[in-house]
């Protein structure tokens, strides 16, 4: 009992002695293991760190040390391994706030803009002042200042220009405050105003907020606030951008696009070629090419719309992705017969699909046609065509293709270097 008591007292004495030798700076940063150990080394209380300590550091991956021949520690390098897990949403939000500090209002600009307004300014005069002001934060404070003035009420023009200024500056929190004011007044709003709100919400990635605005438009008793074809264009484009080239994700969003399209037709809004192309592109991205072809054949018969070059480009790319080269060639011939020129993505997809299917000669002729039309051939297309030509034993054609690619790269590099 007495031995245990003396051992305990000696350990307490060693701890107290060590704490008295640690500098105040090291004591403040004692939560950091690396700073604590470095301070211990500087104060000299660790005259001889045993090898077990270094082996412990090495085994835990906490640090690394260098030991002299006398067994004493010369230097200690302590480090913590970095985490490979993704940061949480709250951490990302804190990092974003730290990297993007809150903007500060320029009082001089604000007072100058306020002094330029007449005593009893109208909403149109306020809208002109906000339009001329380049600082979005000044615009926001000017809008709020005008709301507090007696005998003044905002109208569609002031709401619209404030939302456009804040949305273009990506000040979505401030823009949301203005939108809430719009939604709280029944007689305020029109189609252009709500379309701008939808556009900036979708640009910010706030799809749920955008859908709620769309529902407010459809339920509004004010006929000027009802959705038009431009409203559906904004929603179609935003939903198509959520797929991220993932067929499963595109399929999930495609259900929403199809429901919106059906609702648009039921409300008496005639679809145009942009809306139909959104359907075609959505079906292609979700690998439902037959549904895309169905919309394509219904364009002129049902909807009285003629397909454009984008329609053919989407279909050619989708058909090549499924290896249907015969249908893709027929679509390409029909496209050229109408005077359209395929884009680079369609040509590259067709050349790759033809080469992989074994039709190397057709792929080569399509490639040279692509070059004549001024489209850019990517590296994947050249690599696929050269490898398939070698597999078929056409080494001369492979050398020709490779030489063309090398000359093209050399020309680009010389152009970049100014030679």
Would you give an account of this structure?
With 419 residues, the protein is mostly helical. It has a domain at 106-224: Tetratricopeptide repeat domain (Serine Threonine Protein Phosphatase 5, Tetratricopeptide repeat), CATH 1.25.40.10. Helices cover 68% and strands 3% of the residues. The protein has helices at residues 2-21, 24-28, 33-43, 51-60, 89-99, 107-116, 123-132, 136-147, 156-168, 172-184, 191-203, 207-219, 229-240, 247-266, 273-285, 289-301, 309-321, 325-337, 344-356, 360-372, 379-391, 395-417, and strands at 63-67, 73-78. A two-stranded antiparallel ribbon has the order 1-2. The chain is elongated and about 85 Å long.
Q: Summarize this, please?
A:
The protein has 419 residues and is mainly alpha-helical.
Helix content: 55-70%
So what's the CATH class of the domain at 106-224? Mainly Alpha
Total helices: the number is 22
Distance between the termini: 90 Å
The CATH architecture term of the domain at 106-224 is Alpha Horseshoe
For the sheet with most strands, the description reads: 2 strands, antiparallel
Strand content: under 5%
Give the rounded overall mean pLDDT.
79
Organism: Brassica carinata (Ethiopian mustard)
Keywords: Repeat
PPR repeats: 308-342, 343-377, 378-413
Family: Belongs to the PPR family. P subfamily.
């Amino acid at each position: 009992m007495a031995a245990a008591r003396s051992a305990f007292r000696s350990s307490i004495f060693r701890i107290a002695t060590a704490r008295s030798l640690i500098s105040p700076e090291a004591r403040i940063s004692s939560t950091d293991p690396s700073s604590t150990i470095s301070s211990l080394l500087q104060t000299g209380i660790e005259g001889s760190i045993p090898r077990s300590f270094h082996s412990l550091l090495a085994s835990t991956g906490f640090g690394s040390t260098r030991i002299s021949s006398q067994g004493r520690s010369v230097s200690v390098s302590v480090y913590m391994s970095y985490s490979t897990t993704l940061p949480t949403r709250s951490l990302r939000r804190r990092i974003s706030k730290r990297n993007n500090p809150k903007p500060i209002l320029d009082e001089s600009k604000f007072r100058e803009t306020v002094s330029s307004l007449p005593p009893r300014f109208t909403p149109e005069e306020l809208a002109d002042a906000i339009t001329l002001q380049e600082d979005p934060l000044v615009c926001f404070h000017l809008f709020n200042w005008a709301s507090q003035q007696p005998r003044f009420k905002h109208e569609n023009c002031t709401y619209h220009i404030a939302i456009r200024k804040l949305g273009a500056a990506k000040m979505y929190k401030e823009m949301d405050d203005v939108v809430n004011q719009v939604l709280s007044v029944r007689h305020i709003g029109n189609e252009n105003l709500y379309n701008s709100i939808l556009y900036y919400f979708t640009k910010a990635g706030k799809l749920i907020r955008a859908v709620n605005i769309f529902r407010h438009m459809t339920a509004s008793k004010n006929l000027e606030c009802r959705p038009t074809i431009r409203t559906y264009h904004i929603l179609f484009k935003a939903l198509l951008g959520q797929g991220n080239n993932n067929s499963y994700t595109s399929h999930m969003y495609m259900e929403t696009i199809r429901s919106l399209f059906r609702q648009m037709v039921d409300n008496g809004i005639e679809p145009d070629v942009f809306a139909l192309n959104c359907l075609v592109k959505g079906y292609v991205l979700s690998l439902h090419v037959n549904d895309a072809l169905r919309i394509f054949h219904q364009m002129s018969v049902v909807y009285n719309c003629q397909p454009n070059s984008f329609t053919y480009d989407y279909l050619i790319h989708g058909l090549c992705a499924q290896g249907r080269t015969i249908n893709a060639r027929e679509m390409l011939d029909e496209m050229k017969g109408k005077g359209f020129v395929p884009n680079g993505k369609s040509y590259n997809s067709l050349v790759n699909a033809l080469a992989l299917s074994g039709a190397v000669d057709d792929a080569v002729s399509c490639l040279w046609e692509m070059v004549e039309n001024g489209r850019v051939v990517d590296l994947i297309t050249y690599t696929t065509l050269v490898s398939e030509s070698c597999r078929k034993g056409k080494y001369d054609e492979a050398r020709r293709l490779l030489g063309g690619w090398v000359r093209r790269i050399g020309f680009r590099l010389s152009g970049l270097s100014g030679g």
